[in-house]
Design brief:
The protein is α+β, with helices and mostly antiparallel strands and 542 residues long. The protein is built from 16 helices and 23 strands.
Length: 542
């Protein structure tokens, strides 16, 4: 509301809330810090887990940052921006979500201290941008190269990504599965390796142990045969992929057929039968012995298919059809009349197996498949869900390393090195931006500090030792299991550089955006107009 010549002028709707100036900034910073503090204790191999219970009573137990912030269901706008930080990190790299959120929260905390000293937010934001740009340069000097043929290094990256999650017992085997999957689907484009992780399908089933998880050079479908009379397994499979219904099409408009004699009815039914038989005959002519259909299959068609010894699965998801095409080399046909032998895919074995009480279809041993599947086993639903998240982190981390070709040591070593070099850089910059760059350096050290705290070590003593060690060796980090500072490269703790650069980028941009907000206007939802006394009344008379 503003007032002019004694007359109030309302510019906001009734019930709207407005917070301005430092109050708005403090509220936003506080909300963002609380989200960061929630996930901070999950960081690192010795991080704690969170139990999240939703409105329906479903339980999720995890220390995966992206899962936690997604399940939190936050309402505050600034807190939602922190959730976006985690989502961006997860979509871009697949790992390092907790790092990104914790770093964003610490950047805002350090900025608040500078604001209390009278430093304007625009100066802080400019200093943060300069520090972020310098951080990328520093990380590049630390990085080493890696290729898809460096299996041992890729395995270390996968193990590092899974360490600290419930998949630790089987992490060696799971790391091997992840690397085999990446190598199988990787493709070379313009002298660069491209890895589309969507071509790796992960299926999970309770029962057995994590070590019993396996990779399938093909596709797993959580489906069963369309008819019990069909064979349970087919060797040297010739696979037809059809995106069309094997049934009589209904007319687009309502229609009636007038039948006046039994002969007419018999002829009508025979014509329908002949149409269905013609579809099945076309499949038989193509020499296919396995059929995957994206749409429905008529019962009569199933009868003919089983009579011909054809293994059929109906109502297959579109995404699974795409994977089947990439794995078997077949083409998805939209019109059965167009099907021919050249459209068929191949696999050495297609079979139905019962896993944990459910029937599943396995398309195995495809020749050079560009889509593969990983079957994850575990004792309980919660265990395999956490293992699935760990495997996803490993796959995405290895894929990023292969595509980016740059890796760094883990265990907080990159953060300590970046902080050290940023402090040197700030001396050259001078001015008030120097304070912001130093604040950025202090903020990024929250990662090794949190690792030390979660391991039960003294955070201050550990940071001092790390800073001293980095004057001689930039790869010195924190081994939380031995509780001492060691060369993380020699210790086999390796991460892709993109995890670090993306975390700094996402965190600094989110902090920049939140710090620039000095006015929050929240409009209230208008209530429905109340009913007048006596109800709605009758219709007016004319």
């Amino acid at each position: 509301m503003v007032q002019q010549y004694g007359q109030p002028i309302f510019i906001l709707p009734e019930g709207a809330l407005r917070t301005t100036g430092r109050d708005a900034q403090r509220n936003n910073i506080l909300a963002a810090k609380q989200v960061a503090e929630t996930v901070r204790t999950t960081l690192g191999p010795k991080g704690m887990d969170k139990m999240l219970v939703n409105d329906l009573g479903d339980i999720v137990i995890t220390n995966d940052g992206a899962t936690i912030v997604e399940e939190l269901n936050v309402e505050h706008p600034a807190a939602k921006m922190m959730v976006e930080v985690a989502k961006t990190q997860d979509e871009e790299v697949g790992d390092g979500t907790t790092t990104a959120v914790v770093l964003a929260g610490e950047l805002l905390k350090e900025a608040e201290n500078l604001m209390d000293q009278g430093i304007h937010t625009s100066i802080i934001c400019r200093g943060y941008r300069m520090a972020a740009e310098k951080s990328y340069e520093i990380l590049k000097t630390m990085a080493n190269g890696v290729s898809i043929n460096d299996t041992e290094i890729l395995k270390k990256i996968a193990i590092t990504a899974m360490t600290g999650k419930n998949a630790e017992r089987g992490r060696e085997d799971l790391a091997d599965l992840s690397i085999r999957a990446i190598k199988q689907i990787a493709e070379k484009e313009n002298d660069k390796i491209k890895v589309d992780t969507d071509n790796i399908k992960i299926e999970k089933k309770t029962g057995g142990s994590v070590s019993e998880s396996e990779i399938i050079n093909g596709v797993i479908l959580d489906k069963e045969r369309a008819h019990d009379a069909m064979p349970k397994s087919v060797k040297n499979a010739k696979i037809a992929l059809i995106n069309a219904a094997l049934e009589i099409k209904k007319t687009e408009t309502d229609a009636k057929i007038k039948i006046t004699s039994p002969e007419q009815l018999e002829g009508f039914l025979k014509q329908e039968e002949d149409m269905v038989r013609g579809m099945v005959d076309k499949i038989k002519e193509s020499k296919a012995n396995v059929l995957f259909c994206q749409k429905g299959v008529d019962d009569l068609a199933l009868h003919y298919l089983s009579g011909a010894g054809i293994f059929a699965v109906k109502q297959v998801k579109e995404s699974d059809m795409d994977k089947l095409a990439k794995a078997t080399g077949g083409k998805i046909v939209t019109n059965i009349k167009d099907l021919n032998q050249g459209d068929l895919g191949e696999a050495k074995l297609v079979e139905e197996e019962k896993i944990a009480g459910d029937e599943m279809v396995f398309v195995r041993e495809c020749k050079n498949p560009k889509a593969v599947s990983i079957l994850i086993r575990g004792g309980t639903e919660h265990v395999i869900s956490e293992v699935e998240r760990a495997v996803n982190d490993a796959i995405r981390g290895v894929a990023s390393a292969v595509e980016d070709g740059k890796i760094v040591a883990g265990g907080g070593a990159p953060e300590v090195e970046v902080a050290k070099e940023l402090r040197r850089y700030s001396d050259k910059v001078g001015g008030r931006e120097q304070l912001a760059i130093n604040a950025f350096a202090d903020a990024i050290e929250i990662i090794p500090r949190t690792l030390a705290e979660s391991a039960g070590m003294d955070a201050i003593d550990t940071l001092v030792e790390l800073r001293t060690s980095h004057e001689k060796n930039k790869n010195i980090g924190l081994d939380v299991f031995k509780c001492k500072c060691v060369d993380m490269w020699n210790d086999g703790v390796i991460e892709t550089m993109k995890i670090k650069t993306q975390a700094i980028k996402s965190a600094s941009e989110a902090a920049d955006m939140i710090l620039r907000i000095d006015d929050v206007i929240a409009s209230s939802k208008k209530s429905m107009p109340s009913m007048p006394p006596g109800g709605m009344g009758g219709m007016p008379e004319y």
